[in-house]
Amino acid sequence: MNKAILINFGSGDLNSGFPRVTVQLWVAGSSRPQQFVGSLPAAPILAKLYKHWQSIYTHICSRSINAKELRKAAKAEFVYEDDELEIESEGITNISQVSFDEVCQNLKQNLNAWLNEPNFFSIEARVTF
Which domain of life does the protein's organism represent (predicted)? Predict the structure, then answer.
């Protein structure tokens, strides 16, 4: 039996909270979903953690793309005449897979703790799988 869950956070944001969160459980063969309403508190730490995760993820992806481009460029014959070294004064300068994994784990733990808030977790208890 196929099932799907739709979560509508309504108005709000991570800094002010979500006063009305609607969860719908859709079951294959049923024309109407089960619907539950709850709320989620403010969680500004999640916004900060997400931005940090996104920044590192973007950097890792661009580093991977740049490495591929450098390998392609090394195969091509050309003369590079710009001998200036440019250093960005801001932003991420060093990333390891371990630090990225730690950020991922921290974001996951905080997200799960937020979703386990009593006014939202009570919905999970009522949703039957």
Answer: Bacteria
